[in-house]
Specification:
Length: 72
């Protein structure tokens, strides 16, 4: 199982599944991250938090913990 956190900079990945629960999952879905969506990894901070991504043309920052809930 590969999560968004394991993806490398410059890679474009497709979301397979969201594993979060309740409000956390809702927050991720509110960002437009749902199954089948392509995510481009733009930048990862030196310690891995945050992860800068582009989703549906929007530039977002994801926390490491949120990225671990997104299977790609």
């Amino acid at each position: 199982m590969k999560t968004l956190r394991d993806a490398t900079v410059g890679e474009t990945v497709t979301v397979k599944k969201l594993t979060g629960e309740g409000p956390v999952k809702r927050r991720i879905m509110d960002m437009g991250i749902t199954r089948g969506v392509e995510i481009y990894i733009r930048k990862v901070a030196p310690l891995g938090d945050p992860i800068e991504v582009t989703v549906r043309g929007y530039e977002l920052s994801l926390r490491k913990a949120d990225a671990e809930m997104i299977e790609v």
